[in-house]
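> example.struct
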């Protein structure tokens, strides 16, 4: 049994609101939808797993303070999935 999740459902999910900004949730939803489309694989919606797998940052400097191996955006793209949007950056934890 699967449920179709709309952008509104994703934006309204309380478990995501604490970890991602409004614009971050939009960017993350679009990214996950694109992943589904590209892979042809329908993902199961698990907001807890999403919270555990992805982190939102305001900028590269904030990421660099948490990951010593990251010196540039190129380093970041070489190590993980990156979602850039106007207000910040979301990465898959590594």
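> example.seq
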């Amino acid at each position: 049994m699967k449920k179709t999740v709309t952008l509104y459902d994703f934006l309204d999910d309380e478990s995501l609101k604490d970890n991602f900004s409004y614009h971050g949730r939009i960017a993350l939803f679009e990214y996950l939808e694109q992943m589904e489309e590209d892979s042809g694989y329908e993902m199961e919606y698990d907001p807890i797993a999403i919270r555990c797998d992805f982190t939102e940052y305001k900028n590269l400097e904030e990421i660099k303070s948490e990951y010593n191996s990251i010196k540039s955006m190129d380093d970041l793209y070489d190590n993980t999935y990156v979602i850039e949007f106007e207000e910040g950056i979301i990465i898959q934890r590594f």
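> remarks
The beta strands are 54-57, 82-85, 88-92.
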